[in-house]
Amino acid sequence: MAFAYAPAPESRAVVDIAPSYGLFIDGEFREAAGGKVFKSISPSSEEVLSEVAHAGGDDVDAAVKAARTAYSSWSALPGAERGKYLFRIARIIQERSRELAVLESLDNGKPIRESRDTDLPLVAAHFFYYAGWADKLSYAGWGPDPRPLGVAGQVIPWNFPLLMLAWKVAPALACGNTVVLKPAETTPLSALFFADICRQAGLPKGVVNILTGDGSTGAELVAHPGIDKVAFTGSTEVGKAIARTVAGTDKKLTLELGGKAANIVFDDAPVDQAVEGIVNGIFFNQGHVCCAGSRLLVQESVADEVLDSLKRRMATLRVGDPLDKNTDIGAINSAEQLARITALADSGEAEGAERWAPACELPSTGFWFAPTLFTGVTQAHRIAREEIFGPVLSVLTFRTPAEAVEKANNTPYGLSAGIWTEKGSRILWMADKLRAGVVWANTFNKFDPTSPFGGFKESGFGREGGRHGLEAYLNV
Ligand code: TAP
């Protein structure tokens, strides 16, 4: 671990965080009806960033009513007019992206290089992309008159707070729906800044409502009878509970859940390139990525070479201050998530896998986990089966492409996969056999608003992004 050069961190003075925030309902910030609040802390320093209102049932009701009232005029607007608002929001996001990137890194713990160069550009790109669709829905192949659904209740996780908001809000609004969105308890701040951006853009009141709170707020929202559509991203466990809540109603549902992706390296892959892809696949965003390449499947004949090179590369990764532009791995999002990662990593050792991490000094305050890999992993081990959602890689080997497919598909999940090989025919053969919604070839964790994203099996259903992402918000 090299610490030779330490540039000045991005200053947190870039963003003005208020000591407290209310719920954003009907275009105004207001206290929760029950007066309840919770604290949002920085996972890297454990300092309190702000005190945030905790929405209860009455607040959910008020937000849904505001969204319902706004729906009649918003859905009646010509698509080109809705598009103008979305273009405006996209431009303001670009203008305020430095502020938002620092905020996201403070509240979530992710490295500023990632929030600045990945999250924020993608957030703006999603709004631009769906802004462009707003006046073209009649030409998208569903006939002349696709209709919005009504009020969408959207619940998002903490790993990409603003990007998950963009994935949900932009297509919903483009199609003429109004939304009530609940961000995760540990990362409420960028959604509240987004509320301010909606005001700045002059978005009619009630079109976007933001309810901060915990899982109980999310549960109230998805159960509310005034919701026409539920869009959820998060754990498979909560996704199943939501599916049970929605069952028997006429609410439309999309679920984007967990993953346990295989990143498959063949013996003809350029090793340096593959190693960069493995590192990006599992250590990007501390491994808090539903499509993370958390299982490395490496062909037996090159396993030693790939692992040697991977370990050398891992030893150069810098863990630390999310606001330092040289940081590769930031803070784990919460003490609770750190405990989950630690328990699963410990289970790997207990079950007989071999644990390795580079020498790595972790800060004394905050929540941290060193980049870690396990070799000698079998398919029965928990670390090969369960989503760790942290910077922990489980390495398995294979001999033949058929064995790689069998191992890759041996999971209840089916969100993503990666293939590293020089052979185009093998890529096509593998992509056809892998049960994964997204298959990357000679790259990993590449996202684009034009491209649909979503899973098979217990990774959920429905697609976000691209033209497919519109279908989730339309009666077609
Ligand atoms: P979840 O508990 O599923 O949380 C996701 C969102 O759902 C949060 O906004 C959460 O609120 C809310 N929620 C919790 N219980 C709910 C309920 N009964 N009804 C409606 N909404 C509810 O995920 P998590 O705690 O953030 O992480 C747990 C595990 O989920 C992780 O270890 C990881 O395996 C997985 N995960 C997957 C993804 C993706 S993108 N697939 C993202 C995050 C986490 P609160 O945050 O306020 O509790």
TrEMBL record:
The active site is at residue 256. The keyword Isomerase does not apply. InterPro entries: Ald_DH/histidinol_DH, Ald_DH_C, Ald_DH_CS_GLU, Ald_DH_N, Aldehyde_DH_dom. The keyword Metal-binding does not apply. Keywords: Oxidoreductase. Pfam families: Aldedh (PF00171). Gene3D superfamilies: Aldehyde Dehydrogenase, Chain A, domain 1 (3.40.605.10), Aldehyde Dehydrogenase, Chain A, domain 2 (3.40.309.10). Residues 31-476 form the Aldehyde dehydrogenase domain. It comes from the Bacteria. Belongs to the aldehyde dehydrogenase family. This is Aldehyde dehydrogenase family protein. It comes from Streptomyces humicola.
